[in-house]
Specification:
By secondary structure, this protein is of the alpha+beta class. The protein starts with a helix and ends in a 25-residue tail after the last strand. The longest helix is centred in the middle third of the chain and has 66 residues. It folds into three domains: 169 residues, no CATH class; 121 residues, Beta-Lactamase; 152 residues, Heat Shock Protein 90 (2-Layer Sandwich), CATH 3.30.565. The strands form three sheets. Strands 1, 2, 3, 4, 5, 6, 7 and 8 form an eight-stranded antiparallel beta sheet that branches. It has a five-stranded mixed beta sheet with strand order 10-12-13-15-14. A two-stranded antiparallel sheet has the order 9-11. β7 and β8 form a beta hairpin.
């Protein structure tokens, strides 16, 4: 405000010099140069203007003497003009000068000052008229007085309103600047998430920025350990621009020092090592004197405390510093909570991956170990079933057939488990070859009982493609067997069509279809669509998972669609020519230590 008032004074002084020049010109024009009532006041005005031009008003107005000096100068100039007003030719000019003086005082001071200035000018004008001219009439006094008072009040009201708006504007600007600083701080604190994905990487950056904002030398975060009912110092801590590793430093909540009280009460605190009523053990260990502590809250839950200590300039912290730290604690708590959840989820993910790998390795090893004795058992049963060795008793023959069937089911289960394990471990070798699709499909159907009776084949045109025959054959066998199993004797269709550089093979059944709630799970391993019916049909829940894995290994995909009129349609989408086919691994290149089943 002092700077703006100084600008007004400097502008008024320039206007005063212009007014003086106008008076001099008027004096010369009307021939009153030799009149002492003209040149003496003009000399006085010039002297006062010269004296008022000398001070530095930006500094002078900051002192109380500045307003007094300005008031004395204005009264002197007004008195000089009052003497000039006794010359009739200058009466109008002087009145205009009065208006300027009153407006100047209204711009610089309270509304009472321009009013008093107006009355003083009228009084000096009356005295000058009485002393050097004729006694003024009532009209000569009342009209100028009313005019000056109105001008004084009007200009005072206008300038006061402008001054109020300026103050409001300055206040808003300061508030906006403060908010801008707060937003910049909040942004910088929130941006620390981009530094890393662990507390050990993010914490020094986070605490360091907050401590830098507050010009603090030390920054510490303490998180609540529910199991031990204590606050644990999170390593590392920030000290004088460096990080220090700490381990196992606990503040039991039963001590109830300043830091512990901050956590328990949820209120920010400002304290020092010299406080006699509290035990500041951490401050003693860190060797600091003054500290601020604020609770770290997330969703009405206090998760810990953030503390900064010792300003770099050695002065104590202020309440404003405490407010700044409190404002930064919310985003800091969100950052720490996010990282805590992220690390917890990452650890859970790592454990799940380990469990999945252990499961896959277990299945692979067990299946591999079962395969060799099962092969021996099946060979022995086939040998006993030969006509020359078969038992003559019908019950023994029935038991032998049952054993052979169950051994076959067990072999199929083991092969499916091995295939699932290889898919999970991405250990499927590829042996692509050129095939004519329609003859290949019919050859596959010959391997499936009842397929010739219930499956209709529709291939629109001759389709030649390069694909792994074993993988494609297993895909078709699994889909057709599923269709025959669940379609309850209804017709099944197998169609193939070429679309650009891809081939779509559809297996369509007209059975009951698949429940919408199960469609997102049908390709997951061990998924049972109808548990009771599946058990009666000897299903394992691996068939569609194997179909999906084999299709993707050949560069394709499989999807489930509804069959018009009821049923399910499985569409296998494969490239006519795979973009890249993995080189077939030689047996010696396989890593049996990781997946022994791959040797089979």
């Amino acid at each position: 405000m002092a700077a703006s008032r100084a600008r007004v004074v400097n502008l008024a002084l320039r206007a005063g010099w212009l007014m003086l020049a106008a008076f001099l010109f008027a004096t010369w024009r009307i021939g009153e140069v030799e009149n002492i009532r003209v040149w003496a006041p003009l000399a006085a005005i010039a002297a006062v203007l010269g004296a008022l031009t000398l001070p530095n008003w930006d500094l002078t107005l900051r002192r109380g003497s500045g307003d007094l000096l300005l008031l004395l100068g204005v009264i002197t100039i007004g008195s000089a003009m009052s003497i000039m007003a006794t010359v009739p030719a200058f009466a109008s000019f002087v009145l205009i000068g009065y208006f300027g003086v009153v407006a100047l005082m209204a711009a610089l001071s309270h509304w009472l000052v321009p009013l008093v200035t107006a009355l003083v000018l009228i009084a000096t004008n009356f005295i000058a008229q009485a002393a050097f001219g004729s006694m003024p009439t009532a009209e000569d006094i009342v009209v100028p007085t009313i005019t000056l008072v109105v001008v004084a009040l009007a200009t005072a009201a206008i300038t006061n309103e402008l001054r109020r708006e300026i103050r409001v504007g300055i206040g808003r600007q300061r508030e906006l600047e403060a908010r801008e600083r707060d937003l910049e701080r909040l942004y910088e604190v929130s941006r620390t998430l981009a530094v890393g994905d662990s507390l050990t990487r993010v914490l020094p950056e986070l605490v360091g920025k907050i401590a830098t904002y507050l010009k603090a030398e030390v920054g510490v975060v303490l998180l609540h350990d529910r199991d031990r009912a204590a606050l644990e110092v999170v390593s590392p801590i920030w000290a004088a621009g460096h990080t220090l590793d700490v381990t196992g430093y606990l503040l039991p909540l039963r001590r109830r020092g300043d830091i512990e009280q901050t956590f328990v009460s949820g209120q920010a605190r400002r304290f020092g090592q010299s406080d006699a009523n509290t035990a500041n053990h951490l401050l003693t260990e860190l060797g600091v004197e003054h500290a601020l502590a604020v609770p770290l809250k997330v969703e009405h839950r206090t998760m810990g405390v953030m503390m900064v200590a010792d300003r770099t300039d050695g002065t104590p912290f202020t309440d404003e510093d405490l407010d700044v730290l409190a404002s930064l604690s919310a985003p800091a708590a969100l950052v720490l909570a996010h990282l805590g959840r992220y690390e917890e989820a990452a650890e859970t993910g790592r454990r799940m991956e380990e469990l999945a790998q252990l499961k896959s390795d277990f299945v692979s090893v067990v299946s591999h170990e079962l395969r060799t004795p099962l092969t021996s058992i099946i060979g022995s049963l086939d040998t006993i079933a030969r006509p020359e060795l078969a038992p003559q008793n019908s019950s023994a023959l029935s038991l032998l057939d049952s054993a052979r069937n169950q051994a076959g089911r067990l072999r199929l289960l083991i092969e499916n488990l091995l295939m699932t394990s290889r898919i999970d471990n991405q250990a499927l070798p590829q042996h692509p070859a050129e095939i004519d699709l329609e003859p290949f499909i019919r050859t596959v159907l010959d391997e499936i009982p009842e397929a010739a009776e219930h499956v209709a084949v529709r291939v629109a045109e001759s389709i030649n493609m390069r694909v792994d025959p074993d993988h494609l054959g297993r895909v078709l066998i699994n889909l057709i067997q599923n269709a025959l199993k669940y379609a309850h004797g209804a017709p099944t269709e197998l169609a193939a069509v070429a679309i650009g550089d891809r081939v779509e093979i559809s297996v369509v059944d007209h059975g009951p279809g698949i429940d919408p709630d199960m469609r997102g799970k049908v390709f997951e391993p061990f998924t049972q669509l109808e548990p009771a019916a599946t058990r009666s049909r000897s299903g394992t829940g691996l068939g569609l998972a194997i179909v999906k894995g084999l299709a993707e290994s050949m560069g394709g995909s499989v999807r489930l669609e509804d069959t018009p009129g009821g049923g399910a349609t499985f569409v296998v989408d494969l490239p006519v020519r795979p973009r890249s086919v993995p080189r077939a691994l030689d047996p010696g290149e396989l890593d049996y230590s990781r997946n022994p089943a791959a040797s089979e």
